[in-house]
Write a structure and sequence with these properties.
By secondary structure, the chain is mainly alpha-helical. It has two helices and no strands. The chain has helices at about 5-25, 30-64. Helix 1 (about 5-25) packs antiparallel against helix 2 (about 30-64).
């Protein structure tokens, strides 16, 4: 599990759930909604999560 998941996991999970809900009920521009979500998600630690998860994945693949 990425360290950032322990530190900010709840926030990132809540942001993702909120986006999914908004995307389902929105009558607006989904692409703009997603772009806004992505920007906020990455700023709140999503980019760190991606980096750490990729490192973990690469280590596990190298060990196989």
């Amino acid at each position: 599990m990425p360290e950032i998941q322990r530190e900010r996991g709840t926030i990132l999970d809540d942001m993702e759930k909120e986006f999914r809900t908004l995307a389902i009920v929105s009558a607006g521009d989904i692409d703009a909604l997603y772009a806004d979500f992505k920007k906020k998600y990455l700023a709140e630690g999503g980019s760190d999560w991606i980096k750490q998860a990729t490192e973990i994945y690469n280590k596990e693949q190298a060990a196989k």
